[in-house]
Design a protein that fits this description.
Elements (H helix, E strand, L loop, with lengths): L1 H18 L6 H27 L7 H14 L8 H23 L4 H20 L10 E2 L5 E4 L2 E5 L3 H24 L1 H18 L4 H27 L1 E2 L6 H14 L4 H18 L2 H4 L6 H15 L7 H18 L1
Helix pairs in contact: 2-6, 2-8, 2-9, 2-10, 3-4, 3-5, 3-8, 4-8, 6-7, 6-8, 7-8, 9-10, 10-12
GO molecular function, one term: branched-chain amino acid transmembrane transporter activity
Membrane topology: Multi-pass membrane protein
Keywords: Cell membrane, Membrane, Transmembrane, Transmembrane helix
Length: about 325
């Protein structure tokens, strides 16, 4: 019964999400697009952190590199062809992942975290301190890319609702791909590496190859999120590669719940909505300018009282209710 309900719930949620722009203001449509992009970004990191046990603080590098790539590869005053612009941007993120991952994955634990952070900061300063991407001022993407073959335009995402549906489709594709990946032999190997890498090596698995492949796949989807972000705003700057961006998406994964794909999505939704609430002058008045303080305290409280994340809250409540029932029965 519960399985049937979940099977029905997913398409219903997708249909509702697809139709929301028809009844919401432009502000809320833009907010939902932002949530979907960060949900995709969090899903890509969930593959590393929750599924493979690789805590990275350099994931923003792939997000930012792809965002810059789609902007630099697009013509300045004409639509680029997404048939090659988008794959090229993702390949740039994957290429950086192959180079940095081959080195970073030779370390473990805190050393892996610091090495990934270092590589992300290197990419940050390349765009910040050179004219490649406009320096600290960033660069603009004036025209969104379109899918065309010759003069035949198949898909034009310049329309806001079309871009909304395109972003939703990218999120669903990412979800579906990662869900199938984790149910495959490859996904089982990643889970085994997370639980006990030494035992997996003893069983004959090349754990380095599996981890590098997962690292590159995560970079690809992180890059997809980055290029969507660039297309959404039409502007990119070096802050997209800053360590704060990596920390933000890592916090989404932790807040939502590690190890399950739903956790990344729920964490992204919860974190962005919390930011919106604490920045609202309608709710907090003039104190809203200090939103970082209230936001930080809220995150500390959520992590402290929900150690398994938002996705583990129902299980936590059931366990508490069962303990209460057992205590009452014992008396």
């Amino acid at each position: 019964m519960q399985s049937s309900f979940r099977t029905l719930l997913v398409p219903v949620l997708v249909i509702i999400t697809a139709l929301l722009p028809m009844v919401t203001a432009d502000y809320y449509t833009a907010l939902i697009i932002k949530i979907m992009i960060y949900s995709l970004f969090a899903l890509s990191l969930q593959l590393l952190v929750g599924c493979t046990g690789l805590v990275s603080l350099g994931h923003s590098a792939f997000f930012g590199i792809s965002a810059y790539a789609v902007t630099l590869l697009s013509p300045e005053y004409a639509s680029g062809n997404m048939l090659w612009v988008i794959p090229a941007a993702i390949v740039c993120a994957m290429a950086y992942a192959v180079i940095t991952g081959a080195l970073a994955l030779r370390t473990k634990g805190i050393y892996f975290i610091m090495v990934t952070l270092t590589f992300a900061q290197m990419a940050y300063y390349v765009f910040h301190d050179t004219k490649l991407g406009g320096g600290s001022d960033g660069i603009y993407l004036y025209v969104r890319p379109e899918l065309r073959i010759g003069d035949w335009v198949i898909l034009n995402i310049d329309n806001s609702y079309t871009f909304y549906l395109f972003t939703l489709a990218c999120l669903l594709f990412t979800w579906g791909f990662l869900a199938m990946l984790m149910r495959s032999r490859f996904g089982a190997a990643l889970t085994g590496i997370h639980v006990n890498e030494q035992r997996m090596r003893a069983a004959g698995f090349s754990t380095f190859g599996y981890k590098l492949t997962a690292y590159v796949i995560a970079a690809a989807f992180g890059g997809l999120a980055g290029l969507l972000y660039a297309v959404k705003d039409g502007y990119v700057n070096p802050e997209l590669l800053a360590w704060e961006q990596s920390g933000l998406v890592l916090l989404m994964v932790i807040l939502g719940g590690m190890g399950r794909l739903w956790g990344a999505v729920i964490g992204a939704i919860g974190l962005i909505l919390l930011q919106e609430v604490f920045q609202s002058e309608a709710i907090f008045g003039s104190f809203a300018i200090h939103w970082h303080l209230t936001f930080g305290l809220a995150i500390i409280a959520l992590v402290a009282f929900m150690p398994k994340g938002l996705i583990g809250l129902p299980e936590q409540l059931r366990a508490r209710r069962n303990r209460s029932t057992s205590s009452a029965t014992a008396k």
